[in-house]
Amino acid sequence: MTGTSWPGESRVPEGTAESGSGGFTSPVAGLVAARASAGPTGNRLTVLSGPSGVGKSTVVAELRRAHPQVWLSVSVTTRKPRPGETHGVEYFFADDDEFDRLAASGELLEWAEFAGNRYGTPRGPVLEKLAAGVPTLLEIDLQGARQVRASMPEAVLVFLAPPTWEELEKRLRGRGTEPEDVIARRLAAGRIEMAAEQEFDLTLVNTSVQDVCHRLIALLADAPEASSPGRSPS
Ligand code: 5GP
């Protein structure tokens, strides 16, 4: 891990199944996690997923700007920072050894390898926010979304879809931040993610960042009209 800040195990209240090591593999920890997915005020965990390049980080950036009351989990990754990314803001950037340690000690709620790098959600901060009733959002890949579904069944899984596959390809290439082989890996992963859309509670088509944010905010606040399952253009 580069830098100094790390929201790790010291922030998990003592005396819970989450403190100490091995939390994710413990069945007791699973129960605590499931209960924590709906906070005391009805706020619950929302997961935003979808193929790389679909615009998840733009949506998340807009949420940060317009709805600071929503807490967005900051993931740990072994990927190198892109220009403009700051440790502790977009990600906690870690080396392989640090990531190994976090995964092995159960400090990650979920983690996955994606296009040659590893990404994971720090467990403690998510459980703390949910317990405090703070609307909480994870922006993670399909493999991570499946792990959250297994350990926190009350979580709402949202799939962000591109208007068309061509649009997705265009956005991924237009970013200009990855070499062609990485783009190819991300597109291959994108095809798998697109095929899994049915596993999600609802799909938002990313035709407008503002509209997607609006729907997400309604979901995070647990508004019933926002929870109707199915596919809806945004
Ligand atoms: P990027 O390298 O473009 O920032 O992210 C690549 C992929 O990793 C995206 O699909 C993103 O949603 C996913 N991702 C980011 N953080 C996490 C995480 O903590 N866990 C998992 N499973 N995927 C993540």
Automatic annotation (TrEMBL):
Reactions the enzyme catalyzes: GMP + ATP = GDP + ADP
Top-rank taxon, per record: Bacteria
Spans annotated as Disordered: 1-24
E.C. number: 2.7.4.8
GO MF term list: ATP binding; GMP kinase activity
Assigned keywords, A-Z: ATP-binding, Cytoplasm, Kinase, Nucleotide-binding, Transferase
NCBIfam families: guanyl_kin
Protein name (Swiss-Prot/TrEMBL): Guanylate kinase
Gene this protein is translated from: gmk
